[in-house]
Amino acid sequence: MVAAVTDATFADEVLKSTKPVLVDYWADWCTPCKQIAPIIEELDREYGDKITFVKLDTNDNPNTPMSYGIMSIPTLQLFVNGEIVQSLTGAKGKGAILKALDEYL
């Protein structure tokens, strides 16, 4: 199960993580977000030992998306040592997501 992060926990769970962290910015009204959710869950099961996968609900946590310039969802951002190294916007298939994560797997 992909863990949820909030504005309050983002720094500790994402920015200070010793592993790469993929953040899935989503909202419950977002159909494309719901379409990629099973893919993120599958990737978490397959690669969770190398990358931490988390979700951030943009409705309940508006500060973090605003500070990272998230203008549309779904958006996926990969953080390594607290820095964004990859960013994908829109519903992507498993192959496109894996390609973005490739050098960290």
TrEMBL record:
The active site is at residues 30, 33. Keywords: Disulfide bond, Electron transport, Redox-active center, Transport. This is Thioredoxin. GO terms for cellular component: cytosol. GO terms for biological process: cell redox homeostasis. The keyword Transport applies. PANTHER family: GEO12009P1. GO terms for molecular function: protein-disulfide reductase activity. InterPro entries: Thioredoxin, Thioredoxin-like_sf, Thioredoxin_CS, Thioredoxin_domain. Belongs to the thioredoxin family. Residues 1-105 form the Thioredoxin domain.
